[in-house]
Amino acid sequence: MSPAFYLTTPIYYVNDRPHLGHAYTTIVADAMARYRRLAGDDVWLLTGTDEHGDKIAQAAAKAGMTPLALADQNSAAFRETWKVLGISNDDFIRTTEPRHTKLVQAILQKLWDAGEIYLGTYGANYCFGCERFYTEKEIVDGKCPDHQTRLTWIEEENYFFKMSKYQRWLIEHIERHPDFVRPERYRNEILGFLRDPLQDLSISRPKTRLEWGIPLPFDDTYVTYVWFDALINYVSALGGPGDPRFEKYWPHVQHVIAKDIVKAHAIYWPCMLKAAGLDLYRHLNVHGYWTLGGQKISKSVGNLVEALALKEKYGNDAFRYFVLREMVFGLDADFSEEAFVGRLNADLANDLGNLVSRVTTLLVNLSEGRVPETTPAFEVGGDHALGGDLKGAFEKARADVDAAMREFAFQRALAAIWEFVGAVNRYIDTTAPWARPASHIARGQRLSALYNAAQALWCLGVLLEPFLPEAARKIRQALGGGGVPTLRDAQWGRLAPGASVQKVSGLFPRVVDRKAAAPVPGVVGAAGSRISLDDFGKIELRVAEVVAAEPVPKSKKLLKLTVSLGAEQRTLVAGIAEHYAPADLVGKKVVVVANLEPATLMGVESNGMVLAGSADGKLAILTLDRDLPPGAKVR
Ligand code: MSP
């Protein structure tokens, strides 16, 4: 039987719309769930919405809606967003559903019957944003440290959960299970907190103050405090004790949260579980905040970081890659579109995208679109081996990914995969399979290099699935593989010789950051913005002679140009087909940007840019008014 794996995200408040912060936690959980499925586990991934409490009641009043109408609307927005982002959750729970409210009441009744709950009076400073009371020690300048808002002193009769009696037990549990709360910084934070006496937890709110909640089963003049209600979703979504789903998955539960809700998850929740006679979770995995200019991303920062806007602009896989790669799980990370575009262009368009297009093109052009045979003499250790141990490099990457994923270190897992991507690119450069074979040995070497490159690409198509599901599927499909893979499929030789291969191009198109530099067509630089002489000096302009020109198949706008820069020839792609016929260009001396990073356009790699001016729909290429040799510098 496959090992079970149960993973949860926080259930998000419905007074907010899904932004980058929520999306990160959910993407992280999705990547982990996909990875465990790939490893063969029987996975259950849960997310949902937290719909009761002051916060929601107040937001609804402000919007002139009932709390349930607001919850319906925003819960649907979360559900829809996760669908569009391709999140593979198995369930979506809402705390207003009867399956949840019933279980919350059953647990409350059980604790009441067992004498774990009592009626008492409580007065303290309360934060409406956090929906919790703050101790004197936690308050900063009289304000909530999280929301920076003034706290409200509230005194009332309430029901209390006898949490204090679990303090010793909880400390011992955390000490005996070093990775109960991880990374370690959060474990230390909780142990530090537990050095002071733990108070009992107020678990009710009088209905006179708040009606929007689950009534206490033993006193319906009160509703349940939102955290006591919300945490139980992790149990109620599985049907609770006795339900086969609960019995199967609960022993393997792990939670993912950000550091804002560590205390509720690392202190209240284990004590509640212990009192209710339920097993504790295995791990609480805590990540840091996404910030924007140093400020935690939240509702107030607006559209820029709305989850869907980012996906729309850059594509799902690029969005996933950026957040998983950029944030060190556990630490804060600052979001910037420049960093996003930088990673997209360097890691996805250049390293991975070009690799996929290179390997598939080589297989189509040099091996008749089939995976070739290989023979031992050309393999690592063989007499005619070339290019190093790519298979070994993959096995290392796979082991490193596994170790990283066991610790929720997504950024390390991706770094390990990209080390392998680099190794495959270097392997292809070293073995140069495009070189003309002069002997049967050279031919064997070439076929062996293509075989290894094909195996490497296939393995990437499997191992990338949890991180870049769409790109990984395209890679596997190009190599004739359909269906849902498992890690066992990521093996050398799994792709049989003879398997058909299709070219893939433009897997990740380069992004020109229009915000940073909105280019005027054909002219280098940004409209309206000034650059220094130093900046200008970074652009290498040269005279180039057009040697050959042809249309790019299936494109109305693009021409493929072969140009001479004197010592070398290059291929460039220029968007000028609507203005110039290929024959007009051959023999012309034009000016090109010679030090641009390569970009693939409609499957053709372009190594530079032809300069042209444009106005009113007319376009004119820059040429010389006197002759200069190809390769001459332009300043
Ligand atoms: N409803 C509670 C959770 C109850 S779980 C039993 C809640 N909801 S929330 O909508 O405020 O979501 C908080 C969670 O959203 C964080 O723990 C984190 O997962 C995610 N994030 C919200 N903003 C974030 C950042 N700026 N950065 C990273 N994650 C953030 O708390």
Describe the model.
- The protein is α+β, with helices and mostly antiparallel strands.
- It has three domains: 4-287, HUPs (Rossmann fold), CATH 3.40.50; 334-489, Isoleucyl-tRNA Synthetase, Domain 1; 521-634, Beta Barrel (OB fold (Dihydrolipoamide Acetyltransferase, E2P)).
- 38% of the residues lie in helices and 20% in strands.
- It contains 19 helices and 26 strands.
- The strands form seven sheets. The chain has a six-stranded parallel β-sheet with strand order 3-2-1-12-13-7, sandwiched between helices. Strands 17, 18, 19, 20, 23 and 26 form a six-stranded antiparallel β-sheet that branches.
- Helix 11 (307-314) crosses helix 12 and helix 16 packs antiparallel against helix 17 (469-478).
- The longest helix has 30 residues, at 337-366.
- The N and C termini lie far apart (70 Å).
- The relative contact order is 0.09.
- The model is unreliable at 516-529 (pLDDT under 50).
- The protein binds 5'-O-[(L-methionyl)-sulphamoyl]adenosine (MSP).
- 5'-O-[(L-methionyl)-sulphamoyl]adenosine (MSP) binds next to strand 1, helix 1, helix 7 and strand 12.
Shape: elongated
Instruction: Indicate how many domains the architecture comprises.
Output: 3
Structural class: alpha+beta
Determine the CATH superfamily of the largest domain. Answer: HUPs
Mean pLDDT: 91
Walk across the major sheet and give the strand order: 3-2-1-12-13-7
Structural Rg: 30 Å
CATH uppermost class of the largest domain: Alpha Beta
CATH topology call of the largest domain: Rossmann fold
CATH architecture of the largest domain: 3-Layer(aba) Sandwich
Ions, cofactors and other ligands present here are: 5'-O-[(L-methionyl)-sulphamoyl]adenosine
Number of helices: 19
Low-confidence stretches: 516-529
Number of E-type strands? 26
Strand content: 15-25%
